Amino acid sequence: DLVNLKVVTLDCSLNLVRIPDLSSAPNLETINLHLCSNLRDLPSSLQHLEKLTLLNVSYCENLRSLPSFYKATSLTELDLLGCSNLCSFPEIMGTMESLRHLVLSETALKELPSSISNLIGLEHLNMNDCKNLVCLPDSFYKLKYLGRFYLKGCSRLEIFPEIMDTMERLYQLDLSGTALKELPSSIANLIGLKYLSLNNCKNLGYLPDSFYKYKSLTRFCLKGCSRLEIFPEIMDTMERLYQLDLSGTALTELPSSIANLIGLKYLSLNNCKNLVCLPDSFYKLKSLKRFCLKGCSRLEIFPEIMDTMKRLYKLDLSGTALKELPSSIGNLIGLTCLSLNDCENLVCLPDKFYKLKSLERFYLKGCSRLEIFPEIMDTMERLYELNLSGTAFKELPSSIGNLVGLTYLSLNNCENLVCLPNSFYKLKSLKQFCLEGCLRLESFPEVMDTMKMLRDLNLSGTTLKELPSSIGNLIGLTHLDMNNCKNLVCLPDSFYKLKSLTRFCLRGCSRLEIFPEIMDTMERLYELDLSGTALKELPSSIGNLIGLTRLDMNNCKNLVCLPDSFCKLKSRERFLQSHIEVWFCEGRPYRSLVLDFSNCFKLGEKGVGNDIDADDNTSLEEVSSI
């Protein structure tokens, strides 16, 4: 007698094949058979369990059929997720008011019975990834309480049924990845619809003209509908639609009536390879916040902005075919992020660029035909990131100093850049300055005043011959990279003034023969890379680098000796074949200094100062102490 039994939990019982008759458990409320992967059927007595509220048979992969359950009048949730051999759903012979949630995702169902409409209380129906589903019942519209209907990934579903009457409560419909070619015009009867997704419906050819009637719609997703060539006219205002994703569609243009989407905040047309123009009415989208056109490789013209747009803060035009921007771009008074990366046809920027007072980030990376940066006629306090990498600039205007809030400036791989403005030092907020690969840059400007904020300066791969003595004014500099500066012949005597410097990289500076005297202690410099330089020796003042933990001199083939001051590195030292480890101990925990002298073929001739005189019978690896 199981009269008191209310809950049966047998989830993950992998050897369970069948469930016994349950008619002796009339008070059963919950049955959980999740992941009973060998369960083949359910007892017919289930339909007599009038108090049953939850039946979970998810991922019962061998379950092939269901008993009739319409008499289970208290059932509120039925979960059949992942029952991949379940090919049919039973007829519902009478109305069921209590069933709210029905999950049929990843089953093998080909169709639903027309009697599904008897689930008059159904609120949530999930049929995601039912790969065999080919049709829906015409009675679908009778599910008056249905709020969410998911059909994502039903890749054989070609037709959506006519909706013969209004459905007020359906607010979320996901048809992503189906084989639909069109939607019925009666879709407008979904008068409460808020979210409609048709993402990756590769066969979708057009949308119904009644689209504008979706007055409750807030989000409409059409990403990846690669055959959709025309967007319908919007014959009346749509106040609630705030997100429209048309990325990857075959649209060639948008209708001018797009301006009727007066509540639109997010519009994406990324990778619309056929898009050739935008409507002149674009500026009327007063609520627009983000507009994404990345990868619209045939878009050559951006429309004039005939009135101010206060709310648009992000505009992504990367990878478009734009040659220029309209001078009216200044009307985007709320713009904070503008991306024109990889606009390879872009040849000029508008003179009124400086009017974008809210701009914080400006990306022009890879604009390989852009030769001139406009004068900045007034201060721009908010612009903190400017990426000009890979442009064709020969120089920057002296008015660059008006970018008083700039913290990051990249000119990497600007191979035509020959000089920097003397006003560089006015960029008081600058933290990171990248010039790697500027092959024609031969001189660095004088730093006429202290720059406290600059932390990272990358000059690798430039043709600099020297640095100005005023480099010491970069009092906050922590990282200085000059790798592969093949023309560099000297460093300034003021080098030691860079008290904040922690890393200094000179790898591959093959003409650098002399390292400057270090006239004062430098406590913070912990890494010094001199690999591949032409140094013959290091100055005796190298001992002033009291914080140094790594010194790399690989391939310094002219190096013949190390200074006596190496002996200041007291305690014990171990010389290895490819590097020396020096251990410090001055009343503090041990710290190690790793020195790499690989391929320094002349070093053994004189050794370390006067303390080591390596003869023909003594190699560095044999020395165990000083």
UniProtKB/TrEMBL annotation:
SMART domains: LRR_TYP. The keyword Repeat applies. Residues 151-228, 285-370, 427-512 form the Disease resistance protein RPS4B/Roq1-like leucine-rich repeats domain. The keyword Repeat applies. Pfam families: LRR_1 (PF00560), LRR_13 (PF23286). Gene3D superfamilies: Ribonuclease Inhibitor. Signal peptide: none annotated. Keywords: Leucine-rich repeat, Plant defense, Repeat. InterPro entries: Leu-rich_rpt (IPR001611), Leu-rich_rpt_typical-subtyp (IPR003591), LRR-SigEffector_domain (IPR050715), LRR_dom_sf (IPR032675), RPS4B/Roq1-like_LRR (IPR058546). PANTHER family: LEUCINE-RICH REPEAT-CONTAINING (PTHR45752), TMV RESISTANCE PROTEIN N-LIKE (PTHR45752:SF171). This is Disease resistance protein RPS4B/Roq1-like leucine-rich repeats domain-containing protein. It comes from Gossypium klotzschianum.
